[in-house]
Every structure is written in structure tokens, then in C-alpha cells.
Amino acid sequence: MKNALAIATLATTSLFATVVMADNNTYNRVSLQAEASTQIPHDLMYVTLYTEDRNSDAASLAQDITRTLNQAISQSKSAPEVKLSMGNRNSSPVYDDKGKKIIAWRERAELRLESTNFAQLSTLTGTLLQNMNMGSMRFGIAESTRQQHEDQLLEQAIAAFNNRAQLATQSLGGKDYRLVNLNLGSQGGYQPPMYARAVMASSAPMAESAPMVEAGNSELKMIANGVIEIRK
To answer: Signal sequence span per UniProt (predicted)?
Structure first.
């Protein structure tokens, strides 16, 4: 009798353990993705200018490049809403036809300009192009503008994800669902730069007056992807 009771107790314990293990397993998990997007007008303009020269005397060359940069920095004071920063600066030797003897030095230095005041930056660019060259020009979205729109898109993307989760739950005959994980990330808001050849045609007019600038738009997108567990 004791042996039978022990066997019955063992069987009950084993059955209970099996049920618990089954409850811990995960079923009906579905991966979903939803997104929200909007078109945002560019409100930030970037311009890269450069000066480049060649001289047999490296010291004289460096002085000439520095003089051009200092002049540009001084002229930039007339545009208080333009942020000015130094870009890349490098110097390299120029060899003779045999590639053995250094016959000169070539140096290049950049100035980077950015502003939300397109007219002021365009006018300053036209002035600086009298002594410098156009490297590139592009448009983007200011960080404060991006953050404002990302907050709105975040709510929309999560709402879209929830709608898809509910639709998936209903389609699979579930009662409700549990969120397992959710990842959120933004994309877009950037325009590739227009390089020297693309903007060279507008360089001459810039030197005379501020050109009409078409900044365009960028698409900003918020993506929500995650996993839900449907309960039946």
C-alpha cells in the first residue's frame, strides 16, 4: 500500500512538473514591423569651400594658405548667423617626372559653413568665392526640427505597430497579445552633397549676388519592429 501511494505521489509530481514546463514554453510568437514617415522641408544649409595652391617653398605655401583662410574668417564676421569651422587641411609633395625628387609642395585647406539663414549664407558664399573654390553644398534638417518630428513619428509608429498586432491577433483567432520586445529607430533626413561640378554653374552668380536657393525636402521615417505573443 505504501509503495502504491509512493508511486501515485511520484506520478502526480511528474505530471505537475510537465504542466509547469509546458506553461513556460512560448507559442504563437509573431514578428511585426510598422512605420510612420513624413516630408520635412530642409532648414539647414551646409557649404564647404576650399583653397588650394602649389609652391616650391613649403613655408611660403603654408603662409599663403593661412592668409586666404584668415581673410575668409574675417569676411565671415559680416554674417553673424553663419557658423564657421575649419575643415581638412593637408599638404603633399610634388615629384619630378621620375618620381624621385621633390620639386614643389601642394596644399589644400577647407572652410565649412552652415546656417539656417539661407540668404545670409548664400551672400557670404558669393563673397568668399572671389578667393576660394566651391567644394560642396547640401541641405539638411536642424537637430531641433528633427527631434520634434521624431517625437511625433514615434507615437505614430507605435500606434501603427499596435494596429498590426491587433490585426494579426484577430486573424490567428487569438483573444489578445503580449508584447515580447519592440525596437524603434529613425531613418532619413539627409541629402547627399552637391559637389563642385554640380554647383560650379552657380558659382559665378554667387559672386555677384545671393542666388535663389531651393532647399527641397527630406523624408524622415520612424520604424517599429518587434515580437508579440498571441494568447488564445
So the answer is: 1-22
